[in-house]
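User: Structure please.
Assistant: Input sequence and predicted structure:
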Amino acid sequence: MAIELKWESKKLLVMNYLGRVSGLELLDTTLKLGGDPRFDDLRYILSDWSGIDKADISAEHVKELVAYVTAMSQTNATIKNASVTAKDETGRALVAFYQHLTRSISWQIQYFENTDDARCWFLDVPE
């Protein structure tokens, strides 16, 4: 059970999801990120789900996450959020659900099968 945050630069945060990740852990980490003073300068979030064994995350957790992210987008509207999905269908479905629910916020959100493609997308999307 781990979500590791790695600030690669002032503008890039890599969030690695490892082992078994719960919905409550996901929500707690998101709340803490929104309160981090570095959040204001952040431009790119790379959420790497490829290291999880199991995600104990429900549709209700995703809806609550979207509420948090919607509020966060009001203070930092320029985030580009790339999610690298786990290989299982459930993980992909949850990320697709998240992307669908966040379609009306200012953040640009996309999901990928590997981190290289996600990083290239950051470079291809104008600020």
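Residues 8 and 36 are 15 Å apart (CA to CA).
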